[in-house]
Amino acid sequence: MTAMIEPGKIAPGQTDPAAIVAEAESAMARIAAAKGEIGRIIFGQEAVVEQTLVTLIAGGHGLLVGVPGLAKTKLVATLGTVLGLDARRIQFTPDLMPSDILGAEVLEQAPDGSRSFRFIRGPIFAQLLMADEINRASPRTQSALLQAMQEHHVTVAGARHDLPAPFHVLATQNPLEQEGTYPLPEAQLDRFLLQIDVYYPDRDAERRILLETTGIDDAEARPVLAPGEIAAFQRLVRSLPVGESVVEAILDLVRSARPGEGRAAEAIAWGPGPRASQALMLAVRARALIDGRLAPSVDDVVALAEPVLKHRMALTFSARAEGATLRGVIDRLVAPLR
Prior knowledge:
The chain is an alpha/beta fold. The chain has two domains: 200 residues, Rossmann fold (3-Layer(aba) Sandwich), CATH 3.40.50; 98 residues, Magnesium chelatase subunit I, C-Terminal domain (Helicase, Ruva Protein, domain 3), CATH 1.10.8. The protein contains 13 helices and eleven strands. The protein starts with 16 loop residues before the first helix and ends with a helix. GO terms for molecular function: ATP binding; ATP hydrolysis activity. It comes from Segnochrobactrum spirostomi. This is MoxR family ATPase. Pfam families: AAA_3 (PF07726), AAA_lid_2 (PF17863).
């Protein structure tokens, strides 16, 4: 494959276009192989797989929202195996304490009678962490996890402990059962790069699920990427060029999603801040790389508008009373870009 980086495009970091092209072509082949292996295990959720890969390759965290039984847990386990990441899972419950996920210091006594504290790491010390039903944990436990997501380290008894690199959290929420849950505050939702909505598979995909997962042998994922490759892809994403038209599309879209600024301003109670623009800038580059392209297009902005914006904005009471939805409002905002 031959490709050229167009003059006048924004390419921060890397200055040698030939080096970017060579590294990107190699990465595209590796990512395609990984995506194919994931698709061999996870059926009927192509958009979810793509958005999850976008999240990881862009270096962020994802919030998976869907009813039980849609293979969210299996997806995270498959990603860990295929991408060469150390993956762990925490089932969040109301009685879960911060120390249950971060770890704690224990007092040990040596044979000579001396005593000292030793830090025992919690399950958060993983490269890929599944926070299952994160909204069932108390705000104190949620904030401990979300602080670690932002800072990439934990502090216990005044001592700092760095998390593995890369470090990603894929949290899940059930949109139906809200009794006894603690909804994430807006400031904490903003720390997720994408909100990935998981829908029911279509009939053909569900038929394949029936035939291929209820036999004697169940397909198991195989490792495709070596440890460290994801980190290299994340550095590459930040070097990919971005056309001025894409930059302007991102700015137009995010700014129009704020109260008083866009074509749906009357329906918006509060909207996304600059972090949404940053998330969209990284996500469109990652999507282009996954799709085998060297630079993103406005189509990538359109495709990722909803998962980037949906959890970063809210509708007014009057708009909700009139039957407006976030999806519908975002569609209105995206319409000029199509």
